[in-house]
Design brief:
about 150 residues; 8 helices
Length: about 150
């Protein structure tokens, strides 16, 4: 398995646990890391994913809701919701992962950890986002400006 994919798998597992159990992010990450065979760069990338996706989940959830309104977040599977959060964070907020790569990786995570229909659902939502990538970026810019005015 490629290094970044392994880190994404680990990040998804951590996000899944903190999302459904309410466990603390840092403690969950460190506990799970002790059992995972991650290199230091993999662990650092996974931590960025977890902190980014979890820390920005309110904004990410707005984006998901806007592009998948027929699926309320409260009814969405934990795996699907967190796969989407990771992918959107990677391409829209972090900017270090190209959109197509983020979509491909999200679909692979959904295939591995989700239900039989997860990969189609994730691909559909991210495909809708890809068609409106400028809208997502504008939402991000508005969010950043709003936060800057608040500080």
């Amino acid at each position: 398995m490629k290094a970044r994919r392994k880190a994404r798998c680990f990040a998804l597992q951590v996000l899944y646990e903190i999302d459904c159990s309410g466990h603390a992010l840092v403690e969950t990450f460190e506990y799970r890391r002790a059992a995972a065979a991650l290199s230091k760069p993999q662990a650092m990338f996974a931590l960025r994913l977890v902190e980014g996706a979890w820390g920005q989940r309110a904004w990410l959830d707005q984006v998901i809701h806007r592009h998948a309104p027929e699926w309320p977040l409260s009814q969405m599977a934990y795996v699907d919701r967190n796969v989407l959060r990771i992918a959107i964070w990677e391409f829209a907020l972090s900017g270090e992962t190209p959109l197509k790569v983020a979509i491909n990786e999200a679909v692979e995570l959904a295939k591995r950890f989700g239900s039989d229909s997860s990969s189609r659902f994730v691909n559909g939502v991210l495909g809708a986002l890809a068609a409106k990538e400028n809208d997502v970026r504008q939402m991000l810019e508005a969010k950043v400006k709003k936060e800057a005015r608040a500080t």
